[in-house]
Structure formats: C-alpha cells, structure tokens
Amino acid sequence: MAGHSKWANIRHIKAAKDGERSRITSEFSRRMRAFVRETGQIDPKTSSQLAKLIAEGKSKNIPSATIERVLAQMSNLKNASPILLEAKGPAGSVMLIEAISNKISHTRSELQSVVKKCGFSLFDGGSMARLVFEEKGMVLVDCDAEGKPDADAYVDVAIEAGAEDVTVEEDEEGGKVLQFACEPNDVYAVKKELEARQLPVRSADVVFLSTSTVPLDSSSLEAIAKAMERLEEHPDVLKVYTNVVEA
C-alpha cells in the first residue's frame, strides 16, 4: 500500500493549478462531508465532534461561508441516494465520481455536461471502476508534529485494530499522517479501535485507489485537472478519483 495515498493521483495533476489554500479548503470540505455522511450529525450545537471539526477548520482559515455551504448541502441531502459514475477519456484515462443527490437524473446530466467538454464520456459506475480502481477503507491518524512518524511502530496496532497495513503518507497540506488501510466494510470498526487506543483519528472513509495508471502529456493533464476542479465544485459531488499520471 505504500505510495498509494488517497490524494496521490489528484494532487499529482492538480498541484500546478491549485494553490495551497484551495487544496486545504477542498480537503476540509471532503472531511466535513464524510463526517456528516458517517455520523448523520449536522448541527454543531448538538455534536461536539462536529463543533471540534469546524473549530479546526476555522483555525486553518477555512471561510465560514464554505463551512456553512457544506452543512447546508449535506442537510438538504439527508435522504438522497448515492451515485457512482465513471468518465472515460483518451488513452484509457478514467475519472471515478462519487456523488449524492435527490435528483439523480438532473445531477447526472449536469456532470455529463462538465466531462463532455473535456473529451470524456460519462457512464454509470461499475465495470471500469472495478478494473481500474480498488475499493479500500482508509483511516487517517494525525502524527506527532514534533516527531518523525514511523509506520513500523504501529504495525502491531494496525493488526490488533483489524487493519491490513499502515503507512506514513503526505496530506493535502504537506503534513504527515498515518494511513491505516482495511477492507471497506471494516473502516469504522478500525476507526473505533484506534480511537480506543487514544490515537487522534482525523478521518475514516472508503476510497478508490487506482490499480493501474495511464501516463498523459501536460496538455491532457491540464484538461483533466480542469474537469476535476469543476466536478469537485458541484454541490452533489463528494469525491473524484483518476488513474492518470504525468508522462
């Protein structure tokens, strides 16, 4: 699992386009969505965990408008259905789009319009997703800011918690996190076990990791980066994955 950071592909092609502030804001928004989806807690007045997460965001200068927009979005989507779409592009490139919507046909139409402008065709997720991506549970734990994280020191913890592997990865802000990988159905059980050991769990989610990559030239990467940026701005989109790397 080493090197398979959940951000690796996206960050690789977007680093030149997105500034540090944009990356931090996008990642924080994803964390908030994942938290609300996992817990169903939407009101920071009644959820100390959500209040703590929001306070963390404000300490990183995440705009209040962004926080309020994410909460409003997730509140409106309480009874929505999940959507998994795949966009196929040149040379075997694929984007996998996770979304949630009350109006699936409408959302699909809007996302199709975005990817079509970048030379991609949109399909319901399934066949290609299983060939190109591997679904994994990922639990992220904050590292000691003053120490040098050593994944080997957490191998026994990972085994006892039910994880398959633990690695040190780089997050969207350039910091280090411990990444515990597990089966998708075990992600929240692993999270609970790590929290019971007093480890500072940052997030727990099911993600898609590319099992094979497609090298593309800079102009093609720029087009995909633009498409991903527009997709991630859509209020119904939770995450976007890709299998492309720089040639």
From TrEMBL:
Any one GO cellular component localisation term in the record: mitochondrion
Ranges of residues in domain TACO1/YebC-like second and third: 83-244
TACO1/YebC-like N-terminal domain mapped to chain residues: 5-75
A Pfam family per the record: Transcrip_reg
Protein name: Transcriptional regulatory protein
InterPro entries: Integrase-like_N, TACO1_YebC-like_2nd/3rd_dom, TACO1_YebC_N, Transcrip_reg_TACO1-like, Transcrip_reg_TACO1-like_dom3, YebC-like
Similarity comment text for this entry: Belongs to the TACO1 family.
